[in-house]
Structures are given as structure tokens and as C-alpha cells.
Amino acid sequence: MRSKIRFLLGAEPRELSVSDPTMTVLDYLRGPERRTGTKEGCGEGDCGACTIVLGRLVNGRLHYEAVNACIQFLPTLDGTQLLTVEDLKQPDGTLHPVQQALVETDGSQCGFCTPGFVMSLFALYQSEATPPGRQDIDDCLAGNLCRCTGYGPIIAAAQQMHALGNRAGERYQRLARETTAKLAAISDQETLCVGDGKRRFFAPATMDALADLVAGHPDAQILAGGTDVGLWVTKHLRKLQTIIYLGRVAKLARITETETTIEIGAGATYTAAMGLIARHYPDMGELFRRLGSVQVRNAGTIGGNIANGSPIGDSPPPLIAAGATLHLRKGPARRSLPLEDYFIGYGQQDRQPGEFVERITLPKPDPATRFRTYKISKRFDQDISAVCAAFSLRLDEDRVTQIRIAYGGVAATPKRANHAENSLTGTPWSQASVTTAIKTLEQDFQPITDMRASAGYRRTIAGNLLQKFFIETSQPDMATRLIGAPELAHV
Question: Cα(432)–Cα(424) distance, rounded to whole angstroms?
């Protein structure tokens, strides 16, 4: 068992003993490393001022992604390259094209948010060989907030950065082989264990080691992307005693496709999974595009969103409507259950001590299936749903042979609307049938009231979304979604 984390800070190797397993990457950078270019803003992964870029080996190739340093725990850096705004310019001071573009377009006002924008755009620059389109730019910047409202010049900088290619911009392409070799050299199959003896952070590298650890520490906090658990530390000030991290288990991050299913490992991020999912379920892909920000989707996992059992998680409703199956493991034993059966009550899931989510099976839709999902929130991007709804429908001519209706955010758990489904099954797919089904929703849910919406609002929206689904599947020529702006095409 290894007791030190190993990573690259820029091009320099780091090997650290860590006493506080929940020290954030942001605190490490601004403290021991004195890299103060990375700023502290919200402390909860919303504003993007702390954006950094992590380089990882994916199938032997170097891949860069932007993440939020404020909710990323330091030990999760093991085996990665960490890049901050200080790493971008050449040793002679030549600015990276992203930085130069921001200078030339006057893209910095007060400057506090600028390093975060630089790093988000750097990750986009590294991932695109050609200038990105406006939709790609908007997606890239959705997780970076500018209180000076200087978005116009920043977008202009994103559109110009590829035209300013120079030695600083080519630097990471030149160093890719060297960085790949360095990361391969610090990669191993040993379990990492750091901490002060009382509080410990385990990071196994194999599925069997993970199963043994979870079985041996049934009270441990299982950590995937940290986009939720990180806030427990930064906002709730909780002291987590034992953490078991999934991020080094390569098998857990696998996404495989069979003739009839998509198999999603519990450690697979939204970014990794959403492309394949969107090919088969376009609406689900669009929902995931609106989930959090690029930084959040690069770290957050579908398995983690399910495992924590939140009633406002956006992935369970569409997965339930699509008929997904959840697979769990405890030691060598495995079991499977329909995803909707996993959620028992508020904060209660059908997961035994020592058991963990291993993967999700998403069946591919039959060509005759009509599938839609909708997200209602106060902001279009990077906001928690007040109501998330998903519908899957099969018709025989104009009669309902099968329908699955799932809602999240309405009640204490994400769940199917069984009374509404029973009301519609076997009836004509008609306005009269849908009107009756909307009334039966009151038997399916006792809506909650919180800061996002009242119970009455949620009750009304739940019915309206079923009505919207009916209109979209029976009157395809009727406009039900905003058009004209790419970023609003799927509202």
C-alpha cells in the first residue's frame, strides 16, 4: 500500500505525504505552492474562478480537462498532471494564445475571474484543433461567472485564440510525449492510503481492491467526482473520517456498448458518457449538457448522482423512464435491480453496508419508442432542477401499449408516476386520456416545497410537462421549444 500521492505540477513531479485527506486542491495551490493565480470565489464549484486543468492518460493518450479546484480533494490528483494559469506562458514570458487573445480583445476587467476563464479556454484550445463554434464556446464558459459582465470580449477571445497560435501554444503539443511518459511512470496498481492515522483516504486501483476496502470499511464515504461531497467539507464543514475514492479504478470508468445496451461504469463521468447516450437518447444528452458546467461534468459521475439518492438529481428520471438497471457489488457478491427500486425514501437507498454501485445498464430504445425529458429550473445553465421529467412511450397505431413516466424534484425521491401510467395504458393517445392522467398525478406524488419551488408550482409543472410530451408526440409540427439561438434550441 502506497502512502504518498504522486502527480505533476506543471512539468515538475510532486510526491507528497498528506495529513488532511480533504484538503482541497485550491487550498494546496494557494497555500504550500503559493500559486495564487487560482482564485477562491464561491467555494462550491459554481463560479469557475478556481478552474484548473488536469491531464490524464486515457487509453495511453494524454487528455486535458477543466475542473474546479475548490471542491477537488488533493489526494485525487494522484497520477495526473495539474496545470494552473502560471504554467501557460513560455519561460521567456511569451503568452499562450488564450492569454494573448484575452489581452487583444480587452477580455479582462477587474481580473478576478480571468485566470478561471483562461484555464477553461485553455482546455477547449487543447481539445480542438480548429476554432470552436459558438455553441462549444458557450458550453465551455457556462461554468465561469464574470461579475463585471464582460462576456462579449471573452467570447471574442475564444473565437480568435486559434488564430494566434505561437510557440507557447505549441508547447504542450511538443511536451505531450514527455508528459505521457512521466505520467505512465507514476502509474501503478497499488492502493493509495494517505491521512493522519485517524482520518484516511483510500484510492484503490482495481475493482477487487475496491470491493475489499468497501466491505472492510462499511461506514466509509465513497467518493467519485466530489461535486457533491466536496461541498460537505467546504460549506458544511464536515470532517470525513474514512474516504474510499473510485477515480483510480479504470474498470469502473468504462463505458461499453452492446447490440442492445449501454453499460455505464459507476466511475464514468458525464463528459465521457453523454456523447454515446445522446446518439441513442438525444433529449437525455441535452439534459446532461445542461447539468452543472463543463467543470462539473468533467468530474461528476452518473453513478455518483444515483448513489447519493438525492431527490433532485437529474440523471435518475430519464434513466428510470428508459428502464435502466442498477448493478451493485458487496465483496464478491453482485445483485441487480430496476433503478426505480433503489430509491426507498428521502436519504434512504437500497444499498447495504459494504455495498457499492458498480454500473448502470441503459437499454437502447426501440425505434418505435418516443422518448423525451425536460428540465425546469430558474436558470437555463448550471442550475438545480425544480422539476425534471422523463417519458417513454410505445404506441400500437394510436393506442398506448407501454408508457413510463418518471419525475425528479417533485417528491422525496425520484419515482415513476404509476397511477398516471396505469391510467394511460391501453387507452387512445388522446387529449382526453392525457387530461385524465394529469389528474391522477395527485395520487402519485405529494410535492415538496423548498427554495426552488412550491408544492403547488411543482404539481402544476408536472402536469404541464406531461401535456407538453403529448403535444410533441401527437402534433410534431407545433412549436414547443425555443428556436433561433443554438443555446436555447432544447428549452
Answer: 10
DSSP sequence for 320-377:
HHTT-EEEEEETTEEEEEEGGGGEEETTEES--TT-EEEEEEEEPPPTT-EEEEEEE-
Query: Do 398 and 420 touch, CB atoms closer than 8 A?
Result: no
- Please give the span between the terminal C-alpha atoms of the chain, in angstroms, as a whole number: 49
The backbone region for 446, taken as left when phi is positive above 0, alpha when psi lies in -120 to 50, beta otherwise, is: beta
Whether the model clears a pTM of 0.85, i.e. scores above it, the answer is yes
Does CATH number 3.30.390.50 belong to domain 254-474? Answer: yes
Counting as low any pLDDT under 50, the low residues of the chain are 484-491
Give pLDDT, residue 491: 43
Question: What is the domain class of 5-86+185-250 according to CATH?
Answer: alpha beta
- Pairing between strand 333-338 and 325-330? antiparallel
Buried b (16+ CB within 10 A) or exposed e, 87-103: bbeeeeebbbbbbbbbe
Cell numbers found for residue 10 = 506543471
* Cα(248)–Cα(262) distance, integer angstroms: 22
Answer yes or no: CATH 2.40.30.10 is held by domain 95-165: no
The amino acid sitting at 430 is S
Tell me the backbone φ, ψ of residue 346, rounded to 5 degrees: -60, 120
Q: Which residue has cell 425521491?
A: 413
SS3 470: helix
> CA Rg, the chain, in Å?
23
pLDDT for res 394: 97
Handedness of CA 239, 245, 247, 248 (dihedral sign): positive
The candidate with the shortest Cα–Cα distance to 283, out of 342, 225, 358, 370, is 370
The domain limits of the chain are: 5-86+185-250, 95-165, 254-474
Cα 220 to Cα 243: distance, rounded to the nearest angstrom: 5
Cβ 474 vs Cβ 395: under 8 Å: no
CB atoms within 10 A of CB 245: 25
pLDDT tens figures, 300-329: 999 999 998 888 889 999 999 999 999 999
Q: Which three cell numbers stand for residue 282?
A: 438525444
